């Protein structure tokens, strides 16, 4: 056989290499898919008996508290602290991101700010909890309350939303900004009418990520907002129950594992719901 | 009625000198004097002295990297949007006003001297909103005025018939040539006196290019046009006055017919005969 013809034959090593990579890629993909699915399946399987309308619409009952009844106050409490945290963190983080990507003149200042923000994002949640307790609960006298918990969660969410939004603004092509500014309009007008719509999908993704992280963390609210039991609906100056701390109590005090699984499932379902809403919103914005 | 409302808000209101500048009959409506430009430490333009005649098409030609876009952008203060780029000495006169003078509002300059970029950049909004993007910043528009204005400028840019049924759809669905005419429409909507064009056809197919060239021929009756191109045939078709640049300097500057017939420099002859560029 001529040399030229030999070149056309299958290269055994290349074929084997291809197979190996195909297998690795599929395994990695399958793990990413199976892990969340099996967690949800597991929680559903074990918490299935307690899941019902009354589980999410009634207060916890029984002794020790939580063996029967529902988790309504915990859902309300979680929504209250996360909502307050978001209301504080989102505008602050968005404004910081706009400043850093569009107004800051010194690249060194931006680099330093980014470094500190990323450090802030890497601080363990429990440290935010302790800091919130020392400063907000004790020093400022806010007490264990929705206000203290919400502000602590805001600190947790701020860097995540900031970093995500900053990247989203930076990803907008420079020629687009330049074209817009060439029409003799102000920077603020360009940001409001072209950059913000372009960056919005990225901003939403970062916000949902941050909020999901916040609603599921027990550590930041453990010392700042949560108690084992409340009956009244949440108000700024009173403590609340939250989903992750309720879950923690049910498990650590061995109150009821079924209710714990049920609570965990509700928590995950909330996150899935929030994520799906964000995905649909992003899809609509892209059109 | 509509016309007066718009004029009140034009650049003259932002700097009183612009009004006299625009009406002063001088050698050229736009002139540079010993203009030097640096990118960081590197000098890109050297002692540029040119004069742009009113209501004519001036073509700036030259090989890639010769500084023709830099020169063009310095004429309406959009160069400073590029990080690092800086006019280090010299002036650009619009009439008798130096646009780099400290009390001149760069935004007003950009409104009176519009620019079309190489790649069309439609904004993420409807076709109508794209046309009115600049106008809506510079003045309040009643709802009833919007479509009127959009129609006027889309017609001037030769795009109205193609988009009149989908004014409220996204501008991203237009073809490249249509997008470039949309960019022209939104620049025209700002009511400029001068239109700068930075290789406006370089990303377009021949048919779209021809369309843009026709528009340039029509627009020169009312506007002063400066067009950067590396396409010699295009400047032959369009230009009244032509400049040739090499390595940051203007080496030829003459009425187009004269320049194409008798380039005075060796580099100019080489460029026009396609030996360099």
Automatic annotation (TrEMBL), chain A:
Cite the PROSITE patterns for this sequence: ABC_TM1
Where does the record place the ABC transmembrane type-1 domain?
A: 75-278
Q: GO: which molecular function terms?
A: phosphate transmembrane transporter activity
Where does this one sit in the cell?
Cell inner membrane; Cell membrane
Q: Which InterPro entries match?
A: MetI-like, MetI-like_sf, Phosphate_PstA
User: Is this entry keyworded Transmembrane helix?
Assistant: yes
Q: Which UniProt keywords apply?
A: Cell membrane, Membrane, Transmembrane, Transmembrane helix, Transport
Q: Where are the transmembrane segments?
A: 20-45, 79-100, 112-136, 142-169, 199-223, 260-281
Q: Which GO terms describe its biological process?
A: phosphate ion transmembrane transport
Q: Which membrane topology term applies here? A: Multi-pass membrane protein
Q: Which family does it belong to?
A: Belongs to the binding-protein-dependent transport system permease family. CysTW subfamily.
Q: What is this protein called?
A: Phosphate transport system permease protein PstA
TrEMBL record, chain B:
Q: Which GO terms describe its cellular component?
A: membrane
Q: Name one GO biological process term.
A: phosphate ion transmembrane transport
The ABC transporter domain is annotated at 30-272
Task: List the InterPro entries.
Answer: AAA+_ATPase, ABC_transporter-like_ATP-bd, ABC_transporter-like_CS, P-loop_NTPase, PstB-like
- According to the record, the segments passing through the membrane are none
| GO MF annotations in UniProt | ATP binding; ATP hydrolysis activity; phosphate transmembrane transporter activity
Q: Sorted alphabetically, which keywords does the UniProt record give?
A: ATP-binding, Nucleotide-binding, Phosphate transport, Transport
Q: What is this protein called?
A: Phosphate ABC transporter ATP-binding protein
Q: Could you name the domain of life of the organism this protein comes from?
A: Bacteria
């Amino acid at each position: 056989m001529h040399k030229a013809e030999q070149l056309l034959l299958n290269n055994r090593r290349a074929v084997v290499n291809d197979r190996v990579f195909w297998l690795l890629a599929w395994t990695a993909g399958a793990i990413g898919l199976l892990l969340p699915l099996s967690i949800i399946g597991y929680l559903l399987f074990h918490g299935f008996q307690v899941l019902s309308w009354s589980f999410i619409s009634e207060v916890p009952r029984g002794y020790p508290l939580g063996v029967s009844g529902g988790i309504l106050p915990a859902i309300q409490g979680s929504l209250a602290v996360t909502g307050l945290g978001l209301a504080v963190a989102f505008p602050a983080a968005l404004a910081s991101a706009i400043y850093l990507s569009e107004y800051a003149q010194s690249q060194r200042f931006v680099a330093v700010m980014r470094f500190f923000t990323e450090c802030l994002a890497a601080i363990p949640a429990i440290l935010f909890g302790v800091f919130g307790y020392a400063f907000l609960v004790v020093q400022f006298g806010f007490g264990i309350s929705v206000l203290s918990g919400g502000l602590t969660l805001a600190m947790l969410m701020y860097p995540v939303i900031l970093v995500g939004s900053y990247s989203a603004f930076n990803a907008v092509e420079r020629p687009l900004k330049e074209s817009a500014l060439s029409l003799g309009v102000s920077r603020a007008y360009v940001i409001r009418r072209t950059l913000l719509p372009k960056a919005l999908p990225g901003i939403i993704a970062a916000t949902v990520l941050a909020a999901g992280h916040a609603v599921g963390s027990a550590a930041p609210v453990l010392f700042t907002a949560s108690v084992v039991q409340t009956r009244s609906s949440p108000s700024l100056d009173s403590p609340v129950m939250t989903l992750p701390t309720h879950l923690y109590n049910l498990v650590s005090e061995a109150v009821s594992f079924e209710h714990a699984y049920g609570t965990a499932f509700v928590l995950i379902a909330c996150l899935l719901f929030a994520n799906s809403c964000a995905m649909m919103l992003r899809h609509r914005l892209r059109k | 009625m509509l016309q007066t409302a718009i004029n009140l808000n034009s650049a003259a209101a932002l700097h009183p000198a612009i009004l006299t500048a625009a009406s002063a009959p001088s050698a050229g409506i736009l002139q540079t004097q010993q203009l030097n430009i640096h990118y960081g430490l590197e000098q890109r333009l050297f002692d540029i002295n040119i004069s742009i005649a009113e209501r004519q098409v001036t073509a700036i030609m030259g090989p890639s990297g010769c500084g023709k876009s830099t020169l063009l952008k310095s004429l309406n203060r959009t160069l400073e949007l590029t990080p690092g780029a800086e006019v280090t000495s010299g002036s650009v006169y619009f009439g008798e006003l130096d646009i780099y003078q400290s009390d001149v509002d760069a935004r007003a300059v950009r409104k009176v001297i519009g620019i079309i970029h190489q790649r069309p950049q439609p904004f993420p909004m409807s076709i109508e909103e794209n046309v009115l993007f600049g106008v809506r910043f510079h003045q309040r528009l009643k709802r009833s005025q919007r479509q009127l204005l959009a129609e006027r400028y889309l017609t001037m840019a030769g795009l109205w018939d193609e988009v009149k049924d989908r004014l409220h759809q996204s501008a991203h669905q237009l073809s490249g040539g249509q997008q470039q005419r949309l960019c022209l429409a939104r620049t025209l909507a700002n009511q400029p006196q001068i239109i700068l064009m930075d290789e406006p056809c370089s990303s377009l197919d021949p048919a779209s290019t021809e369309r843009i060239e026709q528009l340039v021929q029509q627009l020169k009756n009312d506007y002063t046009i400066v067009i950067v191109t590396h396409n010699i045939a295009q400047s032959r078709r369009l230009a009244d006055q032509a400049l040739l640049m090499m390595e940051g300097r203007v080496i030829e500057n003459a009425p187009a017919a004269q320049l194409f017939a008798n380039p005075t420099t060796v580099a100019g002859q080489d460029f026009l005969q396609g030996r360099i560029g």
